[in-house]
Amino acid sequence: MIRARNVSKSFGDTHAVRDLSFSVNEGEIFGIVGPDGAGKSTLLRMVAGILPPNKGSIEVGGVDAASDPFTIKENLAYMPQRFGLYEDLTVEENIHFFGRVFGVSRREIAEREKGLYEFSRLGPFKDRLAGKLSGGMKQKLGLACSLVHRPKLILLDEPTNGVDPVSRREFWKILYGLLAEGVTIVVSTAYLDEAERCNRVALMYEGRFIVTGTPGEIKSGTGRTLVEIRPSDVWKAEEALKESGEFGFVIREGRALRFFVDDAKRADRRIRTVLSRKGIRAGAAETKVPTLENCFMEIISGGGNR
User: Fold this and answer.
1) Please, is 107 exposed, middle or buried when counting C-beta atoms within 10 Å of its C-beta (0-12, 13-18, 19+)?
2) Is residue 258 part of a domain?
3) Of 86, 65, 67, which Cα lies nearest the Cα of 75?
4) Which end of the chain is less packed: N or C, by CB atoms within 10 Å?
5) What is the pTM of this model?
6) How far apart are CA 45 and CA 78, in angstroms?
7) Do 265 and 131 belong together in one domain?
8) 16 shares its domain with 115
9) Confidence check: pLDDT of 301 > 80
10) Could you give the CA distance from residue 60 to residue 74 in angstroms, rounded to a whole number?
């Protein structure tokens, strides 16, 4: 569905996207995960044909996005972080407006309305002004407006940013429903737990994909073991382990410390030695299953390359 080759985009001295090459298969959810400023929004705008790359090319369904943006938009929906809903129009009026913008006839919009209301659960609110909706409902209305022309590819730029956990879960249920219908979805997010729900994930940092794969492949791809300790003084223990320079990036989670090691048994002995010198007690280091967040922090800290 998408093929990008050596794509770069700069704004003056700011390099937003750096020499990216990747592909997205038909009928999958592809997640682009990274912090603010990683280049996620710029990349999606280039895929949507809104921004031309300074270098390289992006094809959507075999069509070059920069040279023929109007052709790709027939089968594409792009939902930016702040979707341009008209807050002084009702839910129904917004759907009809965007349908007409996409060239859908009034009769077809009327036929599709029922399905859009069913998946979004906005039927009871169709006469409510968009400006009076909650954040989660606005996002679902934005998605409904994006889908009125039945695109084959949906680009979603941090669609659940600032949305409550219940609405986030409902939004992802909607995405899985679309996936079952064969729609290809590319979603950017800063939430690592959402990346776990994607078929494949690209971890983006400073304009580059630092690793791409299924969530399982990424979590097993560091080649190192995640261990956890619960010291008597978590603050002093964290400081002592960092000062030693032996344990890379230390992650504090409540009263526990987590970090990646090459050998769990050998690390357990070294941990006890380092902490005992500071008068800190700790139980045995326990091996844990890493989250994508753990792996992301390990990789960008350079630990994944040791």
Assistant:
1) exposed
2) yes
3) 65
4) C
5) 0.82
6) 8
7) no
8) yes
9) no
10) 11
- DSSP state letters, 39-90: SHHHHHHHHTTSS--SEEEEEETTEETTT-HHHHGGGEEEE-SS----TTSB
**Region 212-237 average pLDDT:** 87
State how far the Cα of 116 lies from the Cα of 71, in Å rounded to an integer. 24
Q: What pLDDT shows up at residue 302?
A: 65
Q: Give mean pLDDT, residues 122-126.
A: 90
CB atoms near residue 165 (< 10 Å): 10
Instruction: Calculate helix-pair angle for 106-120, 91-101, nearest 10 degrees.
Output: 130
Two tokens, residue 143: 């998605």
Q: What is the CATH number of the domain that holds 22?
A: 3.40.50.300
The tokens describing 306, both together, are 């040791």
Give CA–CA dist 297/35, Å, rounded. 11
Give the residue from 218, 239, 264 where a domain finishes: 218
Nearest Cα residue to 130 out of 140, 118, 119: 140
Q: Which residue has the tokens 């978590």?
A: 234
Residue with tokens 């949305």: 163
CA 252 and chain centroid, separation: 23
Give me the residues paired with residue 2 across strands: 24, 60
